[in-house]
Amino acid sequence: MIKRVFLLLFFVLVISQFLRPVKNQGSYDSITTFEATAEVSNEVKTILQNKCYDCHTNSTRYPWYMEVSPITHWMSYKIDEGKEHFNISEWESYTDKQKDHKLEEFVEVIEKKEMPLKPYTWIHKELSDQEAKTLMNWAKVMRSRIGKNNEELQTKKEDSLPKKDLDTTAVKEVVTE
How many domains does one find in the chain? Predict the structure, then answer.
């Protein structure tokens, strides 16, 4: 009985080696756009490249162990999940409100030390306190800029609305009658 179970597991593992998920290998252009529009400094860029981009962009660098099943399937799932929460490659498609919310969550998960995920840090190391502080400071600055942009847009909208001229004499006559 035990022999059959191990034999079955062996065949499942062998078959899973040939049934691989689609790799996350999109263009790096969207990341470059994000880095420019989000005013990412070289220091922040280095941290993001080393700790975030593999799971939060459409372009993943696959290490050797990603060729081994079932790790391939598990990591593919985790990458899809990471992109669902925050996909840097989709930054330009987010509204300012969504960007603000994504950055708010970004700061929160770093403060709680929930990111990067523990299995990722076994090989790639955790964020140092200085790296975490650098990322959180950058995200907070970006949030304040997004807020200022929204205020400026709202002011411009209000200024561009047509102003109705009231005939004050007609209003006075109606009020006095």
Answer: 1
